[in-house]
Inverse folding.
């Protein structure tokens, strides 16, 4: 640890100023825009926004999809992470690599695949028509289910990674010890694994929930204008109506939701001692 | 012969607002091997870092060879330091680690080569020049770190807990190695340790430190047989220390009458100084363990726990039974309050 | 039995995660006119067509430029910052940490809009300039984090040893610190490159005439036609990312740093 403060600041401040001036200040101004009117400070931007039924629908849909995606990712994530941790070292590295791999691929490419799968002439519809379950292809694209699947596929790796690294930190032999002491597998999970991996769950949960809230590509491609989410609504308001007040309101909502999700998960985690 | 090489006067060292060492005076004699001994947090490492120039003193002066170096930066002081973690450069070979400082001096390639090779040979690592530090054992890394400092021909070589990361066998080997190197090079060595056995075995003089102050300074023999304070006594293995009040020994647990004149406010005994088997007092055996030449007892007495060694020839007393003991004046070390 | 269940769960999860990507590769290799899986015969004509689309070429170059130079700039700013935050006791270091990490937390679409409204329009920045700064700021948190973690693993006493052997502080950094965090720096570059290259929301509003990043261009192309060329392009981009990551993994065990 070096004690020369001035030297340290000279090294750290350029990055901080860069982020502050080119990033946080403009974002701050944008967020404040909804509170300003010709006469002074106002909350009318917010009340107007929530007065519109469409906006309410979009708000609750975004919240619902965020929670569903994070919840599903957690359930599948625990199963997958547990399996990964139980593998031998070589297999573990390979499988973990395969989980990380999708993160390196463009989200546009990853989302685009779902069009091939869920489209009118996609695999699922071919199967449905082929099996005679339906005369004509059914609409699978531009539904909440499509958006849900797309988001889940996009963000689940983040949950698995967080949970795997949390599980790797569980001391060896703790689980066998609990088993020897007479715990069932369910009890082992609730009383040993869950408390010891809650940090990972908080990180993974925040990443997935925030990611799902603020994803643009997936709702844009798989939901279109039929299944608007907050992010696509924001784009539409700006591009179609030049409505910067709504944009500012949505921006604030997105940020508040991300932060409160993180706080809430931390709360839950620390309450479960 | 006994010329002063390093002199610390009125040295005050602090981390932010925490004063680690207030007002320290110490002279280090040319060619000696001196140990800074004390428990963690006593300021020994802080003092060493200040000598090296890694920590600027709040006040006071450091002179080396009569030159005031208080404001001289670490890279211009000509002092060597062997870190506790060795701090070898992982990306460089053993050879390049040792040559690192010489290359900075822009010496001729031939000189760098010969001095580096000599340095590596001095610590017995010839043949390992191409290895990376990670490919060397702990003991070899230690010796490489030593060589890296020695080739710079430092006026003073500082060693931070030089033996603490080694296992028992290597420790002994390294002790001999350090003494040999010092004999051969005559370099002044200052080493920091928390292990009194290490300090007693290696050092010409020991500086016992407590809370940033010098508690006692002397030869190993002086510290071992004549500790001046309760702290020094405890550090040197006097495990039974009691107050003297009204012709009785007193502890927090109780008291025992004395049959002789104490002549000091505190008396201290090593476990070996307590005589077991006969005497005016009695204690119940709480624990007993075999220690080769003797048997170590922990006795529960009127003074609380007493640690006592009994000759191995005497029959073992079972746990829970009482045994007579004495705290004779002849083996007691009187201490100032 | 346990083993079988293990592999079954992993197999299903991996199919869900990676399956769609495999489908794209084949959908792009269709011999037919429309997007379908299984494809109507195999051909590479859509893969070839990608290279003839003028706008793809221009937007690919822009995305490359942003990814390479944005990430380099982020490293130039981020390495000293990571070093300072690791090695010095700074007043307000938590604040600095938060500010530097903030771009990860703020939704990208908001960033793009904010930069458009308050930098491009009033201050007369070009869109390319704004894109460059947005991508740099976006990559900065990754640069700081990845470099920090490799600095964290490098003991500070190594620099002190270098100084005692005669180095100046700058020399100690160049000769001892930098060679030992090389892997972390390269990992940060790759992570930043991939993040920047694949980034959509930030660039959404920051487009001008002829100035579009590749992913945005693909979205725009998809609005006009669903022909398999986007699938082919997606597959090629994915292969590019994977090739980079695999090379990095082979060279230095990239995944240690992520």
């Amino acid at each position: 640890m070096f004690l020369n403060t001035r030297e340290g600041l000279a090294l750290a401040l350029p990055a901080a100023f860069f982020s502050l001036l080119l990033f946080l200040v403009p974002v701050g101004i944008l967020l404040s825009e909804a509170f300003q009117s010709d006469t002074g400070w106002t909350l009318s931007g917010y009340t107007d926004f929530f007065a519109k039924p469409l906006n309410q629908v979009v708000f609750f849909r975004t919240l619902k999809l965020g929670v569903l995606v994070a919840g599903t990712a957690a359930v599948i994530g625990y199963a997958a992470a547990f399996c990964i941790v139980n593998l031998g070292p070589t297999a573990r590295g390979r499988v973990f690599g395969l989980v990380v791999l999708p993160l390196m691929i463009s989200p546009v490419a990853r989302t685009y695949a779902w069009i091939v799968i869920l489209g009118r002439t996609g695999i699922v519809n071919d199967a449905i028509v082929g099996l005679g379950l339906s005369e004509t292809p059914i609409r699978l694209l531009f539904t909440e289910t499509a958006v849900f699947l797309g988001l889940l596929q996009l963000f689940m790796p983040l949950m698995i990674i967080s949970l795997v690294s949390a599980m790797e930190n569980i001391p060896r032999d703790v689980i066998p010890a609990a088993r020897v002491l007479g715990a069932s597998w369910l009890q082992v999970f609730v009383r040993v694994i869950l408390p010891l991996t809650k940090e990972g769950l908080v990180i993974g949960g925040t990443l997935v929930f925030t990611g799902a809230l603020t994803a643009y590509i997936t709702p844009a491609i798989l939901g279109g204008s039929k299944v608007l989410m907050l992010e696509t609504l924001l784009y539409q308001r700006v591009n179609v109506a030049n409505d910067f007040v709504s944009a500012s309101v949505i921006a604030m909502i997105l940020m508040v939701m991300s932060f409160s999700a993180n706080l809430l998960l931390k709360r839950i985690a620390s309450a479960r001692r | 012969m006994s010329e002063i090489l390093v002199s610390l006067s009125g040295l005050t060292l602090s981390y932010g607002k925490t004063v680690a060492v207030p007002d320290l005076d110490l002279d280090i004699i040319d060619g000696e091997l001196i140990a800074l001994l004390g428990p963690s947090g006593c300021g020994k490492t802080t003092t060493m870092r200040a000598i090296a120039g890694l920590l600027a003193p709040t006040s006071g002066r450091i002179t080396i060879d009569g030159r005031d170096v208080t404001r001289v930066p670490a890279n211009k002081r000509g002092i060597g330091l062997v870190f506790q973690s060795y701090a070898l450069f992982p990306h460089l070979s053993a050879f390049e680690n040792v040559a690192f400082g010489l290359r900075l001096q822009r010496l001729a390639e031939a000189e760098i080569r010969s001095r580096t090779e000599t340095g590596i040979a001095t610590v017995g690592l010839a043949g390992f020049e191409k290895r990376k530090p990670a490919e060397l054992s702990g003991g070899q890394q230690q010796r490489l770190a030593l060589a890296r400092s020695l080739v710079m021909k430092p006026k003073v070589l500082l060693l931070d807990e030089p033996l603490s990361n080694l296992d028992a066998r290597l420790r002994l080997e390294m002790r001999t190695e350090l003494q040999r190197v010092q004999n051969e090079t005559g370099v002044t060595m200052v080493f920091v340790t928390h292990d009194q056995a290490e300090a007693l075995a290696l050092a010409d003089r020991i500086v016992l430190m407590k809370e940033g102050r010098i508690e006692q300074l002397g030869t190993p023999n002086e510290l071992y047989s004549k500790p001046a304070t309760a702290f020094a006594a405890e550090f040197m293995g006097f495990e039974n220390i009691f107050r003297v009040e009204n012709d009785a020994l007193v502890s927090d647990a109780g008291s025992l009458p004395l049959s002789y004149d104490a002549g000091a406010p505190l008396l201290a005994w090593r476990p070996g100084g307590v005589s077991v088997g006969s005497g005016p007092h009695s204690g119940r055996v709480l624990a007993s363990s075999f220690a080769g030449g003797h048997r170590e007892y922990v006795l529960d007495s009127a003074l609380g726990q007493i640690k006592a060694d009994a000759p191995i020839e005497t029959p073992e007393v079972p746990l829970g039974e009482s045994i007579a003991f004495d705290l004779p004046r002849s083996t007691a070390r009187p201490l100032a309050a | 039995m346990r083993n079988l269940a293990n592999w079954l769960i992993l197999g299903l999860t991996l199919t869900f995660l990676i399956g769609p990507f495999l489908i794209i590769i084949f959908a792009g290799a269709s011999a037919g006119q429309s997007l379908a899986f299984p494809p109507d015969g195999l051909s590479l004509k859509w893969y070839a067509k990608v290279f003839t689309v003028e706008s793809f070429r221009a937007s690919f170059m822009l995305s490359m430029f942003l990814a390479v130079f944005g990430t380099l700039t982020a490293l130039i700013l981020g390495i000293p910052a990571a070093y300072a935050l690791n090695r010095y006791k700074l007043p307000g270091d938590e604040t600095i940490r938060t500010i530097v990490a903030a771009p990860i937390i703020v939704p990208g679409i908001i960033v793009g809009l904010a930069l458009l409204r308050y930098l491009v329009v009033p201050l007369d920045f070009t869109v390319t300039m704004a894109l460059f700064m947005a991508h740099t700021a976006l990559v900065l948190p990754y640069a700081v984090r990845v470099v920090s973690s490799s600095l964290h693993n490098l003991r500070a006493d190594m620099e002190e040893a270098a100084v005692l052997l005669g180095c100046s502080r700058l020399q100690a950094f160049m000769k001892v610190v930098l060679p030992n965090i090389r892997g972390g720096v390269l990992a940060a570059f790759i992570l930043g490159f991939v993040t920047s290259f694949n980034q959509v929301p930030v660039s959404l509003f920051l487009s001008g005439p002829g100035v579009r990043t590749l992913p945005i261009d693909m979205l725009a192309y998809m609005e006009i036609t669903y022909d398999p060329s986007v699938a082919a392009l997606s597959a090629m981009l994915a292969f590019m990312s994977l090739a980079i990551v695999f090379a990095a993994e082979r060279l230095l065990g990239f995944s240690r740093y992520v």
About this structure: The first helix of chain B runs from residue 44 to 52. The CA atoms of residues 245 and 289 of chain B lie 33 Å apart.
